[in-house]
Amino acid sequence: MDDTEIEQKAWDIVRAWLERATPEQWHRFAARSNYDGNGRALRWLLDNRNVDRATALLIYWNLGAAWFVQYANESDLGDASYQLDTFRLLRDIERRYADGYYAHHGIWFDPHDFDGAGPDDYPDVPVARPVPALMLQPTDGREYVDLDEADGYDEGLPFDVVERRHALYD
């Protein structure tokens, strides 16, 4: 198998798990996932209307929304044009979030009270386009997903999924 086939098979394994996972598992995956090289899975979540709005908000901040406030529009990226896809994805999340695209399964999330990336990460970055106020507010969910409770998981995926993926590379 060549690298492209292996990557496709690895994605197929992850996608199959995502398709049967619960909103709470998606949330934990989004929080504990390695964002480098995991764009397909994150995009799958963000394109899924059944994903909880708390999960979309968590991904938004983990993608570095606080960093991107220094760019008012795409042309401002200049030498950072390699970040164009992330810039566009953040704008998509903002629109979808404001339009009620994402489901409300009752998961609570507060971007100011999170172990991952958040609104205060880059206090010295000049603000050319502030984060929309809606994206700074906690969700009104009542269910707290314990992100530290990860027994049987590695980077947000169950061990059996991780093992099947790793077996492809052996």
What is the gist of this entry?
Helix content is 42%, strand content 2%.
Tell me the quaternary state. single chain
Radius of gyration: 17 Å
Q: What would you call the shape? A: globular
User: Termini, distance in Å?
Assistant: 11 Å
Report the total helices.
Answer: 6
Q: How would a crystallographer describe the biggest sheet?
A: 2 strands, antiparallel
Helix content: 40-55%
Q: Briefly note the structural class of the backbone.
A: mainly alpha
Query: How many β-strand stretches?
Result: 2
Give average pLDDT, whole number: 93
Largest sheet strand order = 1-2
Q: Which regions contain 5 or more consecutive residues with pLDDT less than 50?
A: none
Word description of this protein:
This protein has 170 residues and is mainly α. Helices cover 42% and strands 2% of the residues. It contains six helices and two strands. It has helices spanning 3-20, 23-32, 39-46, 53-62, 84-99, 159-168; strands at 153-154, 157-158. The chain has a two-stranded antiparallel ribbon with strand order 1-2. Helix 1 runs parallel beside helix 3 (39-46) and helix 1 runs antiparallel to helix 6 (159-168). The longest helix is centred in the N-terminal third of the chain and has 18 residues, at 3-20. The protein is globular and about 45 Å long. The model has no long low-confidence stretch (mean pLDDT 93).
